[in-house]
Amino acid sequence: MKIVVIGTRGIPDILGGVETHCEELFPRIAAMGHDVTIIRRSPYVTDYNRIPSYKGVRLIDVKAPRKKSLEAIIHTFRAVLKARSLHPDVLHVHAIGPALMVPFARLLGMKVVMTNHGPDYDRQKWGRLAKAVLRTGERMGTCYSNAVIVISTVIADILSTKYGRTDTDLIFNGVNRPVKSKSKSWLEKWGVADRPYIVAIGRFVKEKGFHDLIEAYAKSDLQKRYTLVIAGDTDHEDEYSRALKKQAHDTGVVLTGFIKGEKLNQLMTNASLFVMPSYHEGLPIALLEAMSYDLDVVVSDIPANRLNILEDGDFFSTGDTGALAKAMARKLSAPRTPRTYDLSAYDWDKIARQTVEVYNRVVSKAKKK
């Protein structure tokens, strides 16, 4: 089967939840014997990842403007045209912004599977017009895709309630069980090799709530005993990201930038606590990764974070910095013991098989017509 993937910035080693999802999923589908191509956005292709393929997945780069409001939609339009020239059995579109082009892809004769990673119009970085475009993309993707994959029951309920689409396929994000690092060499660079620290991971956008985390850290007594380390950065430098970096600097917070591989392994292996203060998520891969390292967690009580493998004491009221400070202090006052989570539902190999089953159903229905 020939599959073309659009809607992601690209792989490998490109910041973003959708990008991590695609980097894990599609090499597995390629290994199952399928022909997989991912169409990447040119601004995210660097000398480091300018490669023709990655773990059996063909990579094609298509130009896109490096402008937050135009990048996704212009690239998706161009990517749909490129995909049509490849004659795929299935076009797989990721996220509701790019899903605005689903009707166009269907008009060009392609069978479309769309993965809804969450209601992006709830993200605080978008203005009124952008939110309207994203809502339209959600509607277009939901109503015109041959099949719709959702990564959480929260998203499934949204699409059922708003559009009456009850035949969505629930396929979670996944996580790998890591081989924990035995080194602290990279941590020495940041002064936390021998000092306990709290860790958070994500893009520097307002909905991730890192400003709340830094404020909660600053108003607590935790600074005396723990360092706060935030791994991440921004795609597009703006007023918020600049203010966040200044806030972090003034509070003594360590910002490592975007990291993966052994650096991330060391950071997660040796952390005392993982915190996710988000206002918006789909199904957060960073939280799954923290649990794969057996870390204790404190997370905001948004619906997407309320995984049934977490406990009531893991949550705090979203946006309440006082409650967040108390939750972190309570967690860190107890003796540090690894937690064990049942992550069997988030196995990437299982997710790859489930995704291919969706493809097979779409292609089979097309052949019967």
Mean of pLDDT: 94
* Major β-sheet profile: 8 strands, mixed
Q: β content, as a range?
A: 15-25%
How are the strands ordered across the major sheet?
3-4-2-1-5-6-7-8
Describe this entry's structure for a reader.
There is one protein chain. By secondary structure, this protein is α/β, with parallel strands linked by helices. It has twelve helices and 14 strands. The strands form two sheets. An eight-stranded mixed β-sheet has the order 3-4-2-1-5-6-7-8, with helices on both faces. Strands 11-10-9-12-13-14 form a six-stranded parallel β-sheet, sandwiched between helices. Strand 6 (112-116), helix 4 (128-144) and strand 7 (147-150) form a beta-alpha-beta unit. Helix 1 (17-31) packs across helix 12 (348-368) and helix 7 (210-219) packs across helix 11 (321-333). The chain is globular and about 65 Å long. The two termini are 18 Å apart. The mean pLDDT is 94.
Write a compact overview of the structure shown.
The protein is α/β, with parallel strands linked by helices and 369 residues long. Helix content is 39%, strand content 16%. The chain has 12 helices and 14 strands.
SSE arrangement:
Layout: E1 2-6, H1 17-31, E2 35-41, E3 53-54, E4 57-62, H2 71-86, E5 90-94, H3 102-107, E6 112-116, H4 128-144, E7 147-150, H5 153-163, E8 169-170, H6 185-189, E9 197-201, H7 210-219, E10 227-231, H8 239-251, E11 254-255, H9 261-269, E12 273-276, H10 285-292, E13 297-300, E14 315-316, H11 321-333, H12 348-368
Parallel strand pairs: 1-2, 1-5, 2-4, 5-6, 6-7, 7-8, 9-10, 9-12, 10-11, 12-13, 13-14
Antiparallel strand pairs: 3-4
Helix pairs in contact: 1-12, 7-8, 7-11
